[in-house]
Amino acid sequence: GQSLEQPSEVTAVEGAIVQINCTYQTSGFYGLSWYQQHDGGAPTFLSYNALDGLEETGRFSSFLSRSDSYGYLLLQELQMKDSASYFCAALNSGGYQKVTFGTGTKLQVIP
Amino acid sequence: DAGITQSPRHKVTETGTPVTLRCHQTENHRYMYWYRQDPGHGLRLIHYSYGVKDTDKGEVSDGYSVSRSKTEDFLLTLESATSSQTSVYFCAIGQGPEEQYFGPGTRLTVT
Prior knowledge:
The complex is a heterodimer of chains A (111) and B (111).
Chain A: E1 3-5, E2 9-13, E3 18-25, E4 29-37, E5 44-49, E6 53-57, E7 60-65, E8 70-75, E9 84-92, E10 98-101, E11 105-110
Parallel strand pairs in A: 2-11
Antiparallel strand pairs in A: 1-3, 3-8, 4-5, 4-9, 6-7, 7-8, 9-10, 9-11
Chain B: E1 4-7, E2 10-13, E3 19-25, E4 31-38, E5 42-51, E6 54-57, E7 64-70, E8 73-78, E9 87-94, E10 101-102, E11 106-110
Parallel strand pairs in B: 2-11
Antiparallel strand pairs in B: 1-3, 3-8, 4-5, 4-9, 5-6, 7-8, 9-10, 9-11
């Protein structure tokens, strides 16, 4: 089956940099997406990596290494509003594409 | 933001009753998904659709059925609700599975 592993909780200081890791074991891996979800809200799309390397979008960057079955989300210049849960999601190819989400990492940004 | 709505937003129902949740989009996106979110499990795919009348099962499809008779509507039905189906249900849409836009969610309680 498919499984993704993320740390359950991470705490970081405002203004700092934090990295949220995601390791995956999926068949027919196609790519890795990242989503942010604030408490009580809906997930929102952050980034997608289909190829190895770093994708940068403002303060957020996402990295993928297919050979290591590993990816991470990098948040720079942390702000209090970045306190949220972050989910990685693996796309599995083969016929019709399905998506498997990790269990999420709760990020707490402290002053 | 993507035009996606869910109805109802909150529902309390009794065990054994049928329940239908509706997802409506105005973006003409091909893919539509139903997820459930429970503490400790992240987002789990129930069913998804890749076109009108084209649907497939996700990882937790038992006890659920779906229908998509129009591009804009994707219905999730619990034929006979059970307490284990108490959850928050999210609908998502996308032109492709790698970038999904989520609705506001439906909080369902089965008593």
